[in-house]
Amino acid sequence: MEAIITTLSAYGWDLLEKTGEHMFISLAAILLGVSVAIPAGILLTRIPKVADRIISFVGVLQTVPSLAILAFLMPFLGVGILPAIIALFIYSVLPILRNTYTGVMEVDRNLKEAGRGMGMSNWETVRKIELPLALPVIMSGIRFATVYLIGWATLAAFIGGGGLGDLIFDGLNLYQPELIILGTIPATLLALLANGGLSLLEKKLTPVAMRGETAKKYRLRWHQRSFSRVVHCQVLVDPLNKRSESQRWIPLESEIWGYTLSHMIEHYTDLETELVTNLGSTMVLHQAMMQEEVDITATRYTGTDIAGVLNYEDITDPDEAMDIVQREFDEKFDQTWAESYGFDNSYTVSVTEEFAEREGIEHVDDLEPFADELNFGVDNAWVNRTGDGYAAFTETHFAFGDVYPMAIGLVYEAAASGNMDAVLGYSSDGRIAAYDLTVLEDDFFPPYDASPVVRNEVLDDHPEIEVILSKLSDTVTTEDMQEMNYMGDVELVGPSTIARNFLEEHNYFEDGEDE
Q1: Could you tell me how far CA 49 lies from the centroid of its own chain?
Q2: pLDDT at residue 210, as a whole number
């Protein structure tokens, strides 16, 4: 509790700002959804033969992964709040559209005929009969969409849109549970308040004749029909939920080296391995090792752990950094930090080749004269890091005009599409070449030499693993690793295949096959 209070005092104004951004994104998306879905739902009641197909198609759109939608929208809408609102709007349409259609279709046909018999036009029938009677069902759809959109709005952080997702993802990246709680509680409260407020409004708008038992029967009949449509749609589109090889939003090299170690251990020993992927930030990996849930981490980086785990600052010499992590991890955590694979994956500031050539940009400091006018796209995990994060960067260099924290997979696309003037990436990332980016010279970031880390207890029980790790030390250059990442990120070769090809090409398997 004390940690939460301390964090609240430190992030108080940020919390208010992020809550305001979150409310704006959610409200804008739901208002856009209401303005489109309700008229569309009424229109579909006039063409019932195709209504189910159109509603099912909208349901298919909702199964597309959110990051895929953000990546698709970014070349057209840029980064920030706008693409986040449009993505959330897409997710809001189905429940409102379906409820509007169902609610209007459930209005008693005799009432509609009576209205027409009294000389009402089509619009008057909709306004005076259909909408008032269907309003409770429509409001139920709006309430459902609003509550879920408030939760989904955290995804705006992936594309620099702000909101409470910034605090949640900072907490995950820095392994600070109090930050996660600080971002989660307001989002939950907003959802509960929206649900309660819209529920009261729904009851108030319900015609007197539809309240009580009549309303229960009416809503039950609607729920039964809606459920059948949801089940049908889900069965139809379930294959689209499978993760495609192109959806890699984290650096691929951790998976490549995970498979490399797995192949080596299973080839040279009788041990079996199980890969655990997508654990996220270094702090999550570190906690998994400390809790003995993971025995070996395939890739750890000197600079990341020096700043994030050991809290050292201003270590720029690679040899000194390696000495520190090897000594400290052995003494403090009972873990062995092995020798480097030979490559480093440092943070780098990049711009497009066209921009670099036009302005004569070679070093990061060359950007300073017009930095106030530049948009800077950065990795979510970096922006609030201590030691080598954005605050330290501005002390050494300068501040950019606008900074957009986002998912690392979207950073390069943002630069290539012209939505970002400069981006922070990784030196061994294959997408640097794929998007024709130029890495600028800089000496700010600490060394990020990549190594495996093993719990000492595991090495005591299986000393042969240490021999295997020694075979892999100093074998791959940064350029080699960039090429391997390019194969995975651009040519879509699987990480297991990349790892096996590397081992076979370098004769790690004497017979070319696993035993």
Answers
A1: 39
A2: 56
Residue identified by tokens 């997702």 is 165
Cα separation, 213 vs 219, in Å, equals 10
At residue 207, the pLDDT reads: 63
The Cα–Cα gap between 491 and 431 comes to 11
For range 400-423, the mean pLDDT: 86
Domain range annotation of the chain: 1-208, 252-344+448-506, 347-439
Listing DSSP states for 46-72 in one string gives T-HHHHHHHHHHHHHHHTS-HHHHHHH
- The average pLDDT across 10-20 equals 84
Alpha carbons 249 and 257: distance in angstroms, whole number: 17
Q: What is the CATH number of domain 252-344+448-506?
A: 3.40.190.10
Burial of 319 (0-12, 13-18, 19+ CB in 10 A): exposed
The reported pLDDT for the residue numbered 187 is 92
Give CA angle at 140 (137, 142), nearest 5°: 115
At residue 248 the predicted structure's pLDDT band, cuts being 50, 70 and 90, is: very low
Token pair 């009969």: residue: 129
Q: Is the pLDDT of residue 240 over 50?
A: no
The per-residue pLDDT for 230 is 34
Q: What is the mean pLDDT of the chain?
A: 83
Mean pLDDT of 437-456: 91
- Rounded Cα distance, 424 and 382, in Å: 9
Residue 57, number of CB atoms within 10 A of its CB? 13
What lies within 8 Å, CB to CB, of 351 at 6+ separation is 361, 367, 415, 421, 422, 423, 437, 438, 440
CA distance 307 to 468: 28
Taking the C-alpha atoms of residue 181 and residue 167, their distance in angstroms, rounded to an integer, is 9
pLDDT tens sequence across 374-395: 999 998 778 877 777 898 899 9
Domain 1-208 identical in fold to domain 347-439: no
Q: Minimal CA–CA distance to 307: which of 412, 416, 382?
A: 382
353: how many CB neighbours lie within 10 A of its CB?
12
CATH class of 347-439: alpha beta
Split at pLDDT 50, 70, 90, the class of 309 is: confident
- Which amino acid is residue 145, in one-letter code? A
Q: What residues have CB less than 8 Å from 392, skipping those under 6 apart? A: 386, 444
Q: Are 282 and 308 in contact (CB under 8 A)?
A: yes
**Got the DSSP string for 280-306?**
-SHHHHHHHHHTTS-SEEEEEEHHHHH
CATH topology of domain 1-208: MetI-like fold (1.10.3720)
Q: What average pLDDT score do residues 305-329 get?
A: 88
DSSP 337: E
